[in-house]
Sequence to fold (158 residues):
Amino acid sequence: MDTKHCAVDGYVDALPTPGPRGTATFDLIIRPADADTTAPDAPDTVLVCSTGNPRITELLLTGIQLGDLLRVIGTLVQPDDSAAPGRLTVDALEVLAAAPILDSREPVFDRYGPYVVIFNADGAAVPVFLASGEWVGEATSADLIGPLIDAYENGGTR
Fold:
């Protein structure tokens, strides 16, 4: 295992969750630094973060929301298996930018690798496209986006 002290900027991907003995865990999405030259369907990096610092834990559990841009500083452990996500023990945290408050009446576009989805407050159905514009299908709810994409990738929906 490779270990180093570093600072990383990334977006909160899932709400932080409390852990045992006053700890908190969260995932950070890190976009490539050279996003303009990176392929559009290049995957983002997911970094699993945790902290036992009471001040940081309280901030994570009460003041952080999805999409916030954070700078975290701590000790990164990269497992020997390159497919496994790195784990960062957070010693310091700074909120660089709060996620924008969205108008719930406006559609929201989100991207999952090469897939683009449209969330709309007017209905539960979620249209899914490839970034190229090719129609994938419509999930009847947000929970069914993953199965729809799986079916598409396996030739079930075209």
Remarks:
- The two ends are 43 Å apart (CA to CA).
- The mean pLDDT is 84.
- The chain is about 10% helix and 45% strand.
